[in-house]
TrEMBL record, chain A:
InterPro entries: ACP_syn_III_C (IPR013747), ACP_syn_III_N (IPR013751), Thiolase-like (IPR016039). This is Ketoacyl-ACP synthase III. Residues 253-342 form the Beta-ketoacyl-[acyl-carrier-protein] synthase III C-terminal domain. Pfam families: ACP_syn_III, ACP_syn_III_C. Residues 115-186 form the Beta-ketoacyl-[acyl-carrier-protein] synthase III N-terminal domain. One of its GO terms (biological process) is secondary metabolite biosynthetic process. It comes from the Bacteria. GO terms for molecular function: 3-oxoacyl-[acyl-carrier-protein] synthase activity. It comes from Flagellimonas nanhaiensis. Keywords: Acyltransferase, Transferase.
Amino acid sequence: MNLKFQNKKITGILTVLPENEVNFDDEIDNYDFSRAQSMKLKLIMGYGKRRVVKEGTTISDLCIYGLNYLFDNGLLKKEDIDAIILVTQSPDHFVPATSHIIQGKLDLKKDIICLDINQACSGYPVGLNQAFMQLEQEEVNKVVVLNADMMSCKVSAKDRGSRPLTGDAASITIVENDTSGSTIYGTVNADGKGAEALIIPAGGFKMPSTPKTAELVTDKNGNSRALDHLVMKGDDVFNFVQREVPPMVERLLDKAGKTKDDVDYFMFHQPNKFMLKKLADKMGISYDKMPNNIVENFGNSSGVSIPTNITHNLGEKLLKEDFLICLAGFGAGLSWSSLLLNLGSLDFCETIDY
Amino acid sequence: MTEIRPEFDFSESSNFIEEGMLDSFDIVSLVASLDEEFGISIDGTEILPENFSSVDGIIQLLIKNGVAE
């Protein structure tokens, strides 16, 4: 589905990374790879450092820390927030919504919209789409989009497919009305037939967690997981991304009357380095315009990887300059989404540690 | 391939995938090596296990991706 928004803009992006860093070199013995294969995959896939939360930390902790940073530094006023949209697959509780917990702990005003959205790696464009729609309301002038996930807690230590790539993070994006006449183009897509390609089988109401669902089972590839853990069918996900993302971006650019050369940066979700390079090659985009360095430095933090990509790679530039940027997210659902927008002259665009 | 999985004799196999000689990580390593060796980028939509089940299949994939016969 194609979307179009008039007179909306992003005015600030903050990424919050847990201070706790894990290095692939220290974990090599956990995985069933030969040493040589590990070192080769490290280069190809981007296994490296990743940030993960310490036990007891929740996504609301990361979000509240980041919001307090903005309040304390005069970058955001509590009373100006008209809506909070939290995109996550790792909420503090099933009930209530974590956005309400954040609103309460920060003592924000009560005439406010609080909304949790269950989306993973395509969650950044999806959350922004919702913010743009809410800004159509007369009384909504400033929306805070929170993306936060801590999936490291749901990945088996013996899962060599997912564990070396998974990181945790949160981001805060401020979205406001704009008077410049700007247009933002977007697309959203879903294919629930691929739901099992990325799934945590147990822990919900369909299959509650029990001692049985916590038992590790080893698959034919040597990965040991429990039903409580995230399962990723790597081949299926890889092929879905290579098949669906290039035409989605083509369609987006076509709707906007732009070409790939018009776009300054393609800031995509980063599942691993190999997948990003293959996408860039297929789409004929240089690696300079499509950064792929987030997984090796911080890990794949699901829907937060796009804002992390932006603050880490373009943070300083986006304070002073303006760029035409294409965002694309893709993953669990299956879900894939994109946005084409002008981004720049931001009030803030930085990364902080929690 | 013997560099990636030295424990197997690939010349004795009729299907590398069905016989469990190459998994998805081995295919990723193999694609990276082939890309580098031949100066190509194998199309991401063609990185499917069935295209890596035999030497003939891999050769066909290389030809399809611009390597001269």
